[in-house]
TrEMBL record:
It is found in: Nucleus. It is an enzyme of class 2 (transferase). One of its GO terms (molecular function) is ATP binding. It catalyses: L-threonyl-[protein] + ATP = O-phospho-L-threonyl-[protein] + ADP + H(+); L-seryl-[protein] + ATP = O-phospho-L-seryl-[protein] + ADP + H(+). InterPro entries: ATM_plant, Kinase-like_dom_sf, PI3/4_kinase_cat_dom, PI3/4_kinase_CS. The keyword DNA damage applies. GO terms for cellular component: nucleus. The lineage of its organism: Eukaryota, Viridiplantae, Streptophyta, Embryophyta, Tracheophyta. SUPFAM superfamilies: Protein kinase-like (PK-like). Residues 140-222 form the PI3K/PI4K catalytic domain. One of its GO terms (biological process) is DNA damage response. This is Serine/threonine-protein kinase ATM. Keywords: ATP-binding, Cell cycle, DNA damage, Kinase, Nucleotide-binding, Nucleus, Serine/threonine-protein kinase, Transferase. Its EC number is 2.7.11.1.
């Protein structure tokens, strides 16, 4: 119990000081039991309810520090979950299709406190994350591309406040991207070493990386 309390205190401190690097992960844990009915019956689906409840309680505590940010992040997470779970037809594979009518209002939704979810935000040792120093979520392009795969991943274009379009891949199902996320962190460290070494820096050697995020335990975007 002591170690659990210590971990909870550490996570709370991290979320207060570095909300853009922690709250999305907490929301993923809080959404841990959010899956389609047909997946819920599979033996591979196991929810750690202790983690889910702990994440929910921590988010409630954090609402007094980052209430507006958490509310907007929940909106963004809901958008990506709905898109990832969007039912598609086989004949739409590898095609660009328009979003259904119920998604049209989302395309114009602006979340001024929420950064583009796949953008890289450097960790600030001084814990100062001013709005306007990163591109925030300003909507979605009103069409998506359905990729080939069992879970029909969708290519989405998020519009940032800087006017750029950020290409993202949303998927749901049994694919577990947590290992992918760990490997991307490792590749980022490798890039730091390559950048700090004179020879490799002059040759501009680097590994191309992408950001992996989670909206729920089995819903991902990258």
């Amino acid at each position: 119990q002591t170690s659990r309390n210590a971990l909870a205190s550490l996570l709370k401190k991290m979320a207060i000081d570095h909300p853009y690097h922690t709250i999305c992960q907490l929301l993923a844990l809080a959404n841990g039991d959010r899956v389609k009915d047909k997946q819920r019956s599979r033996s591979s689906f196991v929810v750690d309810m202790d983690k889910k409840l702990a994440a929910e309680n921590l988010l409630k505590e954090l609402s007094s520090f980052h209430g507006a940010l958490i509310r907007q992040m929940k909106q963004m997470v809901e958008i990506y979950i709905r898109l990832a779970e969007l039912e598609t037809r086989k004949e739409d594979t590898n095609k660009k299709i328009s979003l259904p009518r119920e998604f049209r209002s989302i395309c114009q939704l602006e979340l001024a406190k929420v950064p583009v979810v796949t953008a890289t935000i450097p960790v600030d040792p001084n814990c100062r994350y001013e709005e306007g120093t990163f591109p925030h979520f300003s909507g979605l392009v009103d069409s998506i591309t359905i990729m080939n795969g069992i879970n029909a991943p969708k290519v989405i274009q998020c519009i940032g406040s800087d006017g750029n379009r950020y290409r993202q891949l949303a998927k749901s199902g049994n694919d577990d991207l947590r290992q992918d996320a760990v490997m991307e962190q490792f590749f980022s460290l490798v890039n730091m070493f390559l950048q700090n070494h004179r020879d490799t820096s002059e040759r501009r050697l680097r590994i191309r990386t992408y950001n992996v995020g989670m909206n729920a335990i089995n819903l991902h975007f990258s």
